[in-house]
Design goal:
Shape of chain B: globular
Mean pLDDT of chain A: 93
Largest sheet of chain B: 6 strands, mixed
CATH topology of chain B: Rossmann fold
CATH superfamily of chain A: MetI-like
Mean pLDDT of chain B: 92
Structural class of chain A: mainly alpha
Low-confidence stretches of chain B: none
Largest interface: A-B, 16 and 24 residues
Radius of gyration of chain A: 21 Å
Family (chain B): Belongs to the ABC transporter superfamily.
CATH superfamily of chain B: P-loop containing nucleotide triphosphate hydrolases
Strand order of the largest sheet of chain B: 6-7-8-3-9-10
Helix content of chain B: 25-40%
Shape of chain A: flat
Main location (chain B): membrane
Strand content of chain B: 25-35%
Distance between the termini of chain B: 36 Å
Oligomer: heterodimer
CATH class of chain B: Alpha Beta
CATH class of chain A: Mainly Alpha
Structural class of chain B: alpha/beta
Largest sheet of chain A: none
Protein name (chain B): ABC transporter ATP-binding protein
Number of domains of chain A: 1
CATH architecture of chain A: Orthogonal Bundle
GO cellular component, one term (chain B): plasma membrane
Number of helices of chain A: 8
Number of strands of chain B: 10
Distance between the termini of chain A: 63 Å
CATH architecture of chain B: 3-Layer(aba) Sandwich
Helix content of chain A: over 70%
Radius of gyration of chain B: 18 Å
Keywords (chain B): Amino-acid transport, ATP-binding, Cell inner membrane, Cell membrane, Membrane, Nucleotide-binding, Transport
Low-confidence stretches of chain A: none
Chain lengths: 217, 242
């Protein structure tokens, strides 16, 4: 039986945006923490730290997020660990995000002029103090636009969590479409919702980048 | 006369490019020594080796009794004795002038905020920039930035100050204000080793001048040596400079 698109459907969709946001936030916060660690390891002069970090980044960047999701969700269940879809999706996104943010931030740290390190070193600051007090505060300005840009990617990628049954915006759209079969309307609406979430962030990222370039001119 | 800095037969190469070929020199307490020489003569490298920004291949370097050539040298200790100022100032752009100076005082010397500020204002006063304490580096002229960099080094009360072509990026007027600060420092008895292209300043202020050529100490003398060079290389160098 098919019917028309009702306000109940609309309400259901809008409500599912919440779960897209929860998943995005989870991925972003956990991924940031992980990414910070990956960045620290990656720039370490100790090879036993920097090499594994490099391998991690390259490995994760070479694997589709969908496969990571399958590994976490189905892989763990084989060993009897039944994780809820939200946890599995959060975990997979965290791994994915940490590799990308780690790499983005490593690039920002590398872009800081070498003499800044040297000046701090000559003032007897330790490497960690230099990073924390001199390098990171200056790299932050550089890191913000690509980080926000990546956040936009994360929001869109949470839609993949629909395949393991986590009901976020995309899955909610599928569920509604399965009952009323109006794909153009339903998925069009879902697309509009994603756009509304992402566009302001994209614009923000772009405007920051523009400001940064003015500063560097 | 006790030597604060002592280099003994120092060799250093970057890849196949041998930059220092047996450099020996001594700096006594309170002495101001100017190192001159053409680009590529190894003078900046020698200076950087003293603060262990570069490691040497062979020879000995001793600073205030610390063996710098020792692979296990306590860098923390070394750098509390040595202050260094660079051609490119290298101020921390995200911090105000005062914060630039207070950073190491707070986090290395572990001074309290008020005490650190007091020291910072003291050294800023010394370089004549107390009124710029709240300014950011980008708001200052090159000469002012360099004076802040000197103050930042001074604040850590080093026993010897190294200056690596600190006026090379400045126009003559700004050069003058930086040199005046260095002159005051020398008068206060600071031990100073400077790599410079300011011949007039070297002649007037330095206790000794060291001319480096092709990675070696080629000629050493007082200011008069610039009027009566003993080696043809120094003569050529001085003539080319004019």
């Amino acid at each position: 039986m098919t019917g028309g698109f009702t306000t109940a459907h609309l309400f259901y969709l809008v409500h599912s945006i919440w779960w897209t946001l929860v998943l995005s936030a989870l991925a972003f916060v956990l991924g940031s923490i992980g990414g910070f660690g990956v960045m620290l390891a990656r720039i370490s002069p100790r090879r036993w730290l920097s090499r594994p970090a490099m391998v991690y980044i390259e490995a994760i960047q070479g694997i589709p997020l969908l496969i990571l999701l399958f590994i976490v969700y189905f892989g763990l269940s084989v060993y009897g660990v039944q994780v809820p879809a939200l946890v599995a999706a959060g975990l997979a996104l965290m791994v994915y995000t940490s590799a990308y943010l780690g790499d983005i931030w490593r690039g920002c740290i590398d872009a800081m002029p070498k003499p800044q390190w040297e000046a701090a070193e000559c003032l007897s600051l330790t490497r960690w103090q230099t990073l924390r007090l001199v390098i990171i505060p200056q790299a932050l300005r550089l890191a913000l636009p690509p980080t926000v840009g990546f956040l936009v990617q994360v929001i869109k990628m949470t839609s993949l969590a629909s395949v393991i049954g986590f009901v976020e915006l995309t899955r909610a759209g599928q569920i509604i479409n399965n009952s009323i079969f109006q794909p153009f309307l339903v998925f069009g609406l879902v697309g509009v919702f994603y756009f509304v979430l992402c566009y302001p962030l994209s614009r923000w990222s772009q405007s920051m980048e523009k400001k940064l370039n003015v500063g560097n001119r | 006369m006790s030597a604060i800095v002592k280099l003994g037969d120092v060799y250093k190469s970057f890849g196949s490019n041998q930059v220092l070929k047996g450099v020996s020199l001594e700096v006594a307490k309170g002495e101001m020594i100017a190192v001159i020489g053409a680009s590529g003569s190894g003078k900046s490298t020698a200076l950087r080796c003293i603060d262990r920004l570069e490691t040497i291949d062979r020879g000995t370097i001793e600073v205030c009794g610390i063996r710098v050539d020792d692979p296990k040298v306590d860098l923390h200790q070394l750098r509390r004795e040595v202050g260094i100022v660079f051609q490119s100032y290298n101020l921390f752009a995200h911090l105000s002038v005062e914060e630039n100076i207070m950073l190491a005082l707070r986090h290395v010397k572990k001074l309290g905020r008020d005490e650190a500020r007091r020291v910072a204002m003291g050294v800023l006063d010394q370089v004549g920039l107390a009124q710029k304490a709240d300014a950011y580096p980008e708001q200052l002229s090159g000469g002012q930035q360099q004076r802040v960099a000197i103050a930042r080094s001074l604040a850590m009360s080093p026993k010897v100050m190294l200056f690596d072509e600190v006026t090379s990026a400045l126009d003559p007027q700004l050069t003058g204000e930086v040199l005046r600060v260095m002159e005051d420092l020398a008068k206060d008895g600071m031990t100073m080793l400077l790599v410079t292209h300011e011949m007039a300043f070297a002649k007037r202020m330095a206790d000794r001048i060291i001319y480096m050529h092709q990675g070696k100490v080629w000629e050493v003398g007082s200011g008069d040596m610039l009027d009566a060079p003993q080696t043809p290389e120094l003569r050529t160098f001085l003539n080319n400079g004019l």
